UniProtKB/TrEMBL annotation:
InterPro entries: CheC, CheC-like_sf, CheZ_family_phosphatases
GO process terms (BP): chemotaxis
Residue ranges constituting the CheC-like protein domain according to the UniProt record: 103-136, 313-347
Name this protein carries in UniProt: Chemotaxis protein CheC
Gene3D superfamilies on file: CheC-like
Native species: Halobellus litoreus
Length: 410
């Protein structure tokens, strides 16, 4: 199966349009004024998706769809937000959030919102898409992605009891292609997410309608690049451990496709300290290595103990750490692509994360409307510190890298 940038743009527009329909339904049903904050096409590992569900206290509604395309949709809420929304729909439901009345209200909300979301895809394809009865699911630490989307959506898993084919929502056994929308109410920060997990055959159907065969990239190339990202994050983690003496792990590492203007919205508005660097070669782009203030202090102490009273030295320590982490992250890319990637001197930054990345996005926006966002996070088991890595490659240079990773090029 091949994917191309035009198909990804179409995926993004359709998912955004469907999410706007869902937000409109939410506003009509509950009176909460909702909007679509971010829409992204995401290539992630199953483990990353599972971790995201586990780490949030989420409740969700799941609906399968079939017809022109097949797959599964998930509408996920944080628990408190779910209670307030259902109470607006079914007054008194919040008195007992575990009651049948409350769960029925949430299922009805999911049915209407996800139905509107899927309708946009049916209109685009000019064919009907049927949806299943909504299922209410609480996501907790014991659940896996198989529990979230059902065994029939996971390739490599046994077929269901009815003998249904086990082909599906993933591109391969480890990676998931998801269309994720973050919706939020205007007056509150609490948001909720719509995931669409189409089958591989359904992705091919959409590509056939929307794509450009001449510009298509084998999906194996995306998975190879995702693996390269994960390995780069692993090397960065090892280098960070060697520098600070503190054991670290890669928490998440994924590739997503998002409108350029939506990139800052993917980042927190909390304060961050770190460095920004530019890299050039194949590919070229920008990278930000960011720590929350407490983490920045922890890594500076580990690298330069006893320098608490010397801000300049602590800033220098963060620059050095950022430089080493960036080198570890990108060296693996250079090796895999058999190329050279040059890195600029690190520039120290201290601001909210979205503001740090905004000027980088402005530069990219001069030549492209969409961006491939690489999002990795490194953390210590005891939460001594976390390090977020955001890379924004130039789309044209990244395409050259994809060409080098394509199966026929090896």
């Amino acid at each position: 199966m091949n994917l191309d940038v035009q198909s990804l743009r179409t995926f993004s527009r359709l998912a955004h349009s469907g999410a706007e329909e869902a937000a409109g339904s939410l506003t009509t049903l509950t009176g909460f004024d909702a909007r679509v904050a971010v829409t992204k096409v995401e290539m992630a590992t199953r483990a990353d998706v599972e971790r995201e569900f586990r780490e949030r206290d989420l409740v969700s509604v799941h609906i399968g769809f079939s017809g022109a395309i097949e797959g599964h949709t998930v509408l996920a809420f944080d628990r408190e937000r779910a209670v307030s929304l259902v109470d607006a729909l079914v007054p008194g439901a919040s008195d007992n959030p575990e009651s049948d009345l409350a769960t029925s209200g949430l299922k009805e909300l999911g049915n209407i919102m996800l139905g509107g979301f899927i309708d946009g895809w049916a209109d685009f394809l000019g064919d009907s898409i049927d949806i299943t009865t909504p299922t209410y699911v609480e996501l907790d630490a014991g659940r896996s992605l198989q529990d979230v989307v059902g065994p029939e959506e996971i390739p490599g898993e046994p077929a269901g009891a009815d003998g249904a084919d086990a082909s599906s929502a993933t591109i391969d056994a480890d990676h998931v292609l998801a269309f994720r929308n973050h919706l939020e109410t205007i007056d509150e920060e609490a948001g909720f997410y719509i995931y669409m997990l189409p089958t591989q055959e359904s992705v091919e159907t959409i590509v056939d309608v929307a794509g450009n065969a001449e510009d298509a990239i084998p999906v194996e190339t995306f998975t190879s690049f995702s693996q390269m990202i994960s390995e780069g994050a692993g090397q960065a983690s090892e280098d960070l451990t060697a520098m600070t003496g503190i054991d670290t792990n890669v928490d998440v590492s994924r590739l997503s496709f998002v409108p350029v203007e939506g990139v800052p919205m993917e980042l927190t508005d909390d304060a961050r300290r770190g460095v920004v660097l530019e890299f050039s070669g194949t590919p070229s782009g920008y990278i930000a290595i960011l720590f929350d203030p407490e983490s920045a202090e922890s890594v500076a102490d580990a690298l330069m103990p006893g320098m608490e009273s010397n801000p300049a030295m602590r800033k220098s320590a963060l620059q050095e750490i950022g430089n080493i982490v960036t080198s570890g992250f990108l060296d693996g890319w250079a090796n895999a692509l058999e190329t050279t990637i040059e890195i600029s001197p690190p520039r120290y930054v201290d601001d909210i994360a979205s503001a740090i990345v905004d000027p980088l996005v402005t530069e990219l926006a001069r030549t492209q409307d969409y961006a491939f966002l690489i999002d990795s996070a490194i953390a210590t088991p005891d939460e001594t510190f976390t390090c977020d890595i955001y890379a924004l490659p130039d789309e044209r240079e990244l395409r050259a890298a994809f060409d080098q990773l394509a199966p026929e090029a090896n």
